[in-house]
Amino acid sequence: MEYAIEVFNLTKVYRSEGKEIRAVDNLNLKVEKGSIFGLLGPNGAGKTTLIMMLTGLTLPTGGSGKVLGHDIVKESLQIRRKVGLLPEGFGFYDHLTAEENLNYVAALNDIPKDERKKRIEDALASVGLLDVRDRKFGGYSRGMRQKLGIAQALLKNPELLIFDEPTAGIDPEGARAIRELVLKLNREGKTIMLSTHLLFEVGPVCDSIAIMNFGRLMLQGKVRELLEKLMAEEGYKIKIEFSGEVGAFAEALSSISGVKSVRLEGKTAHVVAEKDVRAEIGKLSTKYSIQILTLELQQPSLEDLFIKYYRREGLSYA
Description:
- The structure is a single chain.
- The chain is α/β, with parallel strands linked by helices.
- The protein folds into 2 domains: 3-228, Rossmann fold (3-Layer(aba) Sandwich), CATH 3.40.50.300; 235-298, 2-Layer Sandwich (Alpha-Beta Plaits), CATH 3.30.70.100.
- 37% of the residues lie in helices and 31% in strands.
- The chain has helices at residues 47-54, 76-82, 98-108, 113-127, 142-154, 172-187, 199-202, 223-234, 247-255, 278-287, 302-313; strands at residues 3-16, 19-32, 36-40, 62-67, 70-71, 83-86, 160-164, 191-196, 208-213, 216-222, 236-243, 259-265, 268-273, 291-298.
- The strands form 3 sheets. A 6-stranded mixed beta sheet has the order 6-7-8-3-9-10, sandwiched between helices. The protein has a 4-stranded antiparallel beta sheet with strand order 2-1-4-5, covered by helices on one side. Strands 12-13-11-14 form a 4-stranded antiparallel beta sheet.
- A hairpin with a 2-residue loop joins β12 (259-265) and β13 (268-273).
- α3 (98-108) crosses α4, α4 packs across α5 and α5 (142-154) runs parallel beside α6 (172-187).
- The longest helix is centred in the middle third of the chain and has 16 residues, at 172-187.
- The radius of gyration is 25 Å and the shape is elongated.
């Protein structure tokens, strides 16, 4: 397994008015190459501090980390050459056009003059702003501004993209456009890390997630595996819609090994079990001459996952 990011007991301590603030507390984290990774948690969880350490903008107090194989302390320059960063609140000049702003950023990143024009055009095309490259930044909507921020992160043709709060302040249509852009960039081979407190904005596009709070990691894993684990913990919820005499069939459902509860609502039964018992339900329906119209295993959602762990850790949605 190849990893774009590896973090080992990473710690960042600030001191303020004689008090010690552990912004990042012994964090261990791995992000697979080629994945979309969601770093989730409320404001003040330590997400931005972690990003600053990963990109060499602040030094860790303890622990270590690697980004694209480079040490975050000793090789931060090499990291910045390979990583495109969209920091929260990235600023451009209102009086300059999109193209002029990107030209300025390209110069700051030492991109050769003879390469800048094509790189700028490619970046603008990738985010869908090529047709409005001559419009002044001051006339851009919030969503367009975020897209231009992503464009500047693409100028270096990075292997890894890190976006800090990419959908903050954007309307639902703009947020959807950002999600679609993230998926497009990932299909093109980019590893992407999305850091946000807006869980439901970016969660659905992530392959893996981690939840942070108070500088610590509360949960990490592949979304699919976490949802399967949640289903095992909470019980397999099966919805049955049927026609036929319900009494004996309902009693028989309760007798299936592993079934914890059966709840009837007219011609619909809701079964909670320790395992997937749909095959056993199918056999019983034949035995009791019940016609099953639908037999659905109800998968938990990301929302269910977030609610469980946020309630467990006392986290906030905002």
